[in-house]
Design goal:
Length: about 190
């Protein structure tokens, strides 16, 4: 996938989940996986904004914050985005460490009224966390359902930030994101 060069770059089985929880924002009591998921979603959106604005200093600071565990793209079309940003900001990203599934991210653009869906396996007994960050009109609505099409969590990304749950069984979950705004929205969905 080719990225538009910005000023910075030019310069250089079915079952119910055991727990279902959505939180409006990650506070001190929620530090951990869900807090990290929200931070990663926000950093990705801010990094793209800094890259497009040609703000190399801001981009370098954001990428440096990925030092312990950079997110990995879950889409083939996104495989070179972080490397492109790192070259533009002259920052070395560390290799992927940590869990097999995450942290990982997906990026896309939704037109007004448009929806995006993705199916993702989550492992039994392993806490899962999803966060959404976006640029554009918003609000975006996130809905996650299990293999039996039962809702696990649903929220508007403008008011809530993270969905946390622990599946009883390993199964495929459906993630749906809808742009309820009047203009295009660029989104990042982070899964950990």
């Amino acid at each position: 996938m080719a990225f538009v060069l910005a000023g910075c770059a030019a310069a250089s089985s079915a079952g119910e989940p055991r727990t279902t929880e959505t939180t409006a924002q990650a506070g001190p009591a929620q530090i951990g996986v869900s807090h990290r998921t929200v931070q990663l979603a926000d950093r990705l959106a801010r990094a793209e904004k800094a890259y497009q604005a040609g703000d190399c200093a801001a981009l370098a600071a954001i990428l440096t914050a990925f030092a312990t565990s950079p997110p990995r793209p879950l889409q083939a079309s996104e495989e070179s985005r972080l490397e492109t940003w790192a070259r533009a900001a002259r920052v070395d990203l560390p290799p992927m460490r940590g869990r097999v599934l995450g942290p990982g991210y997906m990026r896309g653009t939704l037109k007004s009224g448009e929806s995006w869906t993705h199916e993702q396996n989550f492992l039994a007994g392993e806490p899962a966390s999803l966060a959404v960050s976006n640029r554009g009109s918003g609000p975006l609505e996130l809905h996650v359902s299990n293999g039996r099409k039962s809702s696990v969590c649903s929220f508007r990304a403008s008011s809530r930030r993270v969905c946390r749950f622990t599946p009883i069984y390993t199964q495929r979950y459906r993630i749906e994101l809808t742009n309820e705004g009047s203009n295009d929205a660029v989104y990042y969905v982070v899964i950990d």
